[in-house]
Each structure stands twice: as structure tokens, then as C-alpha cells.
Amino acid sequence: MRPLIKKFYSGEVLAAAKTLPVVGRHLLQKNVIKIGIPLVGVPLAVVLNRYTTLLAGRHAQAVFRNEARVIELAEGMSRRSRHPRLLLWVAWFVIRADKKITDDEALLMRHLVRLVRERHQVVDKELADLVDIDPVEVWDRIDAEPGDLSDVVDAADRVATVDGDVTSREKAVLSELRDRCLRV
What pTM was estimated for this model as a whole? Predict the structure, then answer.
């Protein structure tokens, strides 16, 4: 603040202040600083507060909009699924294909498990205790399911895109999944 105030009080004002005795100059300087800090500080604080509030609001809006998008995706997948238990296994398999789990994927899986439990009364204890998924076990489960599994393939495509672009490992899993599920 001091450099700003010194810049403001230059020229004639500074010449007038220099004519004051030493005590007068010191008191003037203290009063100018005492008055200048609130005059500059309060508006500056208001502007900064408004700016940071806008930034925080925009960030919160983006986060909540993304979470709503993921929940809506999970609801649609759960509603359309004719194979809810297999849906959970395939979703986890696609999520784990690239050996990492993003926040969106974790959120999707959390809501998908909840919705499948509520809508289809499916609780898969074996999947709940699973950390690393074995592809052979998923393929065996797919081979054991009779009928059309296009709902599972559609769900797998949606799971792969929940966190953005589909990785090469996810593409490989989706390709293998299509071959196995869309059998005639």
C-alpha cells in the first residue's frame, strides 16, 4: 500500500507535506496510510471476493453437472439392462481395462451398483470382494448367458466413454466383448 500511496501523494501535495515540521509530516503520513488502506483495501477485497466467488460457483456448477451426467448414464444403463449381474461385471471389466480408475468411472460404478441393487434386487457379493478382475471369468459369464446381449455391449460402450476418450486397451476389450456377445 505504501508505494501506491506515495505515488498518489506526489508533486504539489508532496511539496506541501514537506513544508510541515517533522512531527507534522509523520502524523500526515500515518493518517494518509490509515485512511488510504481502507479506501483501497475495501474495494479491492470486494472485487477479489466477487471474482473468487464466481470462480468457485462455476467450478461447483461444472462438478455437479458432471455428476448429474454420470448418474443419468447409470440410471439409463440400469433401466435398459436385461442382464444386471453381467452388466456389473462387464462395467467393472471395462473400467479396469486401462489399469486405472478415474473419478467419473468410480462415480459411475458406485451409482450403477446402487441402482442395480434397487431396481433389480441384485447384490453380487463376489464382485464386491473383487479387486483385480480376471478376463477369463468375465468371458465365462458371458458365454453362460443365453440370448441377446446387445444391452451389455451398449452399456460397455457407455462405460468406456464416461471419462472421455476411449483408450486402446478399452477398445481392445470392447472389440472382444462385441465378438463374444453379438454371437448369432
Answer: 0.72
